[in-house]
Specification:
LacI family DNA-binding transcriptional regulator (chains A, B), transcription regulation (chains A, B), homodimer, DNA-binding, DNA-binding (chains A, B)
DNA sequence: AGTTCATGGAGAAACGGTACTTCTCGCCCG
DNA sequence: CGGGCGAGAAGTACCGTTTCTCCATGAACT
């Protein structure tokens, strides 16, 4: 059955050593290309015998369907963009901080588990790079207010799910930690450990994380009647953190406990404390937000707040893929409900409509170590573990 | 000029709110789609007036060319795969170690700079994920001998460049550090600092890095007449490292200097030394291979070997894109030369032919800190910086 | 006046699949 | 005995670009 591909008249020029196409398989198996497509994709009504025969022929010919052609026809590429923010001159902070690294890893893994692959794209990349890639959807990390990129993606119909509650950008959905609850929890924790004046090391940027956390701190201060004691610095500048930590401990109204919002704050504060002869936790209680496990090994070990980035990454991707498949699957599996808005943990998805995009708040986890306890150190107690993986 | 797209008779069904296509632009501008394509891509012979008019119309309509269609037609997707190895049960070690994280970041950046985006793909992902993505080429990190994935990619004509000298897989090109020179340099450095018996903490896996480094160590021992003192452990198991470090220092023939091949070895060895009451660097000289800057802050700071992952990532990607564009550009910019084989720093590219794939060896950098010096600590001396960026 | 040539642009064939629609049977049933 | 039905499979219109070929037209040249 060498009814070659040429017989179909579709290949006028002599075929070079190019890859086998679906037509070659069809010719070799003595069936139509429709049958080949159906057999390989498990569609259509075909007896198992035909199906397996076609598959075998395809295997023998080393046939690999063209992803480009499939994407063009089906409108789905199986590609998800992972937008990473860019600070300063460096292309992006992707993998710079443990948070992003872990989040990205979990996101990649989750996407792959559902048959999608992730494309890493800095938000600042040239427009042509973005539009040169067929994306089924995009995960955007911590979008700034009015991000033009996000707006355009959203407008052009590409689902966008953000990690971090978006400011003014329209997104399909978003996921974030309950930063307010986290900060309040830490402040209470420090209070219970005996802190009388709790300081905050925070950032100058206006992203949601910094803003919500700082606001929660200020609200707490007002509530308990403590004068706020905080220092700010540009979080993306690693050197500035040490300086700010020093400033905070050099103040006349020096705090006896500090919460640092960013990953390196723990070591910065520890070093500053050492310079001022302050002993941790005796003279100074310390907590910082970090995903790094180096704080389990510092002297003393430092209590950290984990944002559980893996959980976030997984959730974000799943939400995005739900949106992609829900919206486009045609069957219209109406998962829609209510009017959208913030809800707690078990994420759901809203298919269409107006109003605020649905958001999901994920809990954080406080890993209590010696630096925030005046007695019985070395105990590691976690907040009650919520359901869900990771 | 509402000569609508329907006039062409190509859109029988009523157009919904879909994105504008090139036909819509052509109709709106009153030209043919060829002209639109040429105008937008800077091709063809068109007066500037037409060009700018078409561009303006396209802009007004919010036209974005379909990446899928372009890919199908041109055979180029602008996508590069970044294959990450997978250890144990975790999906992949991507971003697990600082080396990979930095390398990936540099690779992403380099690719973007040349108009390509990176797709992160674990080597273990299901075959269908791989073949579902149109890749112009692939970067593979540390391929194991006879990697079937790499073989198939290579066979199907996709350029493959590996980070790490490949074992038996055919690749287009590869980049690696000069591990032998690095290890010999460290051993000499430790010797000069007064070490009499240098131990090695190495891995059990058979990847090139581990193998070459260990062999270099053994060769050095034989040359200087020292009995080898080393312990091995599965490098992907973080807990095993501490145990192995302990074993090494518990030996009757305890070394007075140790080089640890993996990132966490520094802290592991430091902790083990403390347990045995050994002072660093007085009783024990320490060097480990790491990209982490925590070793600048340990007590004492630890001398590290940096593999300069950013430089590697950049080089790998550039080599790959050279291969992609060199092979397919048709113009045949014959960069070809010689017969291929290992060469030092300035990377070149071989277009075709048989024989060993061209490899590029990149130098490493020893960051000397207190842990490997008996006198005058705190000095940071680098190896002479080679040309090239980063 | 007829041939070149450059200019500006249109036509249509791919690219390689997928998904409707249609066709041909053989069979069952009224 | 005709029509409906369902299985098995083929036909073919797209998906939205790029690119190759070709066609006018007018100016310049012989």
């Amino acid at each position: 059955m060498t009814a070659a591909a040429n017989q179909s008249g579709r290949r006028p020029t002599s075929r070079r050593l190019e890859r086998a196409g679906i037509r070659d398989v069809a010719a070799a198996a003595g069936v139509s290309i429709t049958t080949v497509s159906d057999a390989l994709n498990g569609k259509g009504r075909l007896p198992d015998e035909t199906r397996s025969r076609v598959r075998e022929v395809a295997e023998r010919l080393g046939y690999r369907p063209s992803a480009a052609a499939r994407t063009l026809r089906t409108g789905r590429s199986g590609l998800i963009g992972l937008t990473v923010t860019t600070y300063g001159e460096e292309p992006f902070t992707f993998t710079e901080f443990a948070y992003f690294a872990e989040m990205a890893r979990a996101a990649t893994s989750a996407a792959l588990g559902r048959g999608y692959a992730l494309v890493v794209l800095p938000a600042s990349s040239r427009h042509d790079v973005w539009s040169n890639i067929a994306l089924d959807g995009t995960v955007v990390i911590d979008p700034p207010d009015q991000d033009p990129l996000v707006s355009e993606l959203y407008r052009s119909g590409v689902p966008v799910v953000s990690d971090g509650k978006p400011g003014n950008c329209p997104v399909t959905a978003w996921v974030d930690n309950d930063h307010e609850a986290a900060v309040l929890g830490i402040l209470d924790h420090l209070s219970e450990a005996g802190a009388r004046r709790i300081g905050l090391l925070t950032g100058t940027s206006t992203d949601t994380y910094t803003r919500l956390s700082t606001e929660a701190y200020l609200a707490w201060c007002k509530r308990v009647g403590q004068e706020p004691v905080y220092e700010t610095y540009p979080a993306h500048d690693p050197a500035a953190g040490a300086v700010a930590a020093d400033r905070l401990l050099a103040r006349p109204d020096r705090p006896d406990a500090v919460y640092g919002l960013f990953d390196p704050n723990g070591t910065d504060l520890l070093a500053a404390a050492r310079r001022y002869g302050l002993r941790v936790p005796d003279d100074l209680l310390l907590v910082c937000c970090s995903e790094s496990d180096v704080y389990a090994g510092t002297e003393p070990p430092i209590t950290t707040l984990s944002l559980k980035p893996r959980r976030i990454g997984t959730t974000v991707v799943n939400l995005l893929i739900d949106a992609i498949e829900g919206v486009d699957s045609g069957t219209g599996v109406a998962l829609s409900d209510l009017t959208g808005g913030t809800r707690l943990f078990p994420p759901r998805f809203r298919t269409a409509g107006t109003g605020p995009p649905p958001g999901t708040l994920m809990p954080t986890e406080l890993i209590v170590r010696a630096s925030s306890q005046r007695r019985s150190p070395r105990t590691t107690i976690s907040a009650p573990r919520p359901p869900g993986e990771v």
